[in-house]
Amino acid sequence: MSRIGKMPIKLPAKVEVTVASDNTVTVKGPKGTLSRKVDPDIKVSLEDGEVTVTRPTDQKRHRAMHGLYRALLSNMVTGVSQGFEREMQVIGVGFRVENQGNLVTFMLGYSHPVIFAVPSEIKVTTGAEKGLPPFIKLECHDKELLGQVCAKIRSFRKPEPYKGKGIIFKGEILRRKAGKTAGGK
């Protein structure tokens, strides 16, 4: 039995879960609404304020999907009740980030600014504190969408290991490499 798959998902107050006949699970909460189509082999049941996910057999495919769908549903419940937040830092001399609504402009050392339109479900905050690198803070109820947007933003200037310049997640530790040394014979 999957360790993750067999754990029930406790529903917080003000969160409603409905399971349709076509195995589509809809989760409503104070932060928004999310829905996901679950594989027809996986059974999702709602009882006593808990959601449980069960599988029909011990086939490898069923075992894999059991834990996957339980984790996805758990993230949906957490997202509509608490939400998710990611903070990224823009490290480099002259690197800046600013936003107007959901339109974010990055100055990353290229000959042109990089302009990115963040989806409307995500709340964006940018800024720079004295002595710290500029930051971008993203908040959303959908963890999957938030992860995709963070990956896209990071791809504009991936952190490089020699000088450490680029866009990193707050608290991320980069493995730095030593540069060339003056070699003699």
Major pleated sheet: 4 strands, antiparallel
* Tally of domains: 2
Alpha carbon gyration radius: 21 Å
Indicate the proportion of strand residues.
Answer: 35-45%
Provide mean pLDDT, rounded.
91
* Number of DSSP strand runs: 13
Named CATH topology of the largest domain: Outer Surface Protein A, domain 3
Structural class: alpha+beta
* Uncertain parts: none
Overall form? elongated
Percent helix among the residues? 10-25%
Give the class-level CATH name of the largest domain: Alpha Beta
Relevant CATH superfamily of the largest domain: Ribosomal protein L6
End-to-end Cα distance = 62 Å
Question: Architecture of the largest domain, according to CATH?
Answer: Alpha-Beta Complex
Question: Order of strands in the sheet with the most strands?
Answer: 11-12-7-13
Number of helices: 2
Structure description:
The chain is of the alpha+beta class. The chain folds into 2 domains: 9-81, Outer Surface Protein A, domain 3; 84-169, Outer Surface Protein A, domain 3 (Alpha-Beta Complex). It is 19% helix and 35% strand. The chain has helices at residues 60-81, 143-155, and strands at 9-10, 16-19, 24-29, 32-37, 43-47, 50-54, 84-91, 96-100, 103-107, 114-117, 123-127, 135-140, 166-169. The strands form 4 sheets. Strands 11-12-7-13 form a 4-stranded antiparallel β-sheet, with helices on one face. Strands 1-6-5 form a 3-stranded antiparallel β-sheet, with helices on one face. β5 (43-47) and β6 form a beta hairpin. The radius of gyration is 21 Å and the shape is elongated.
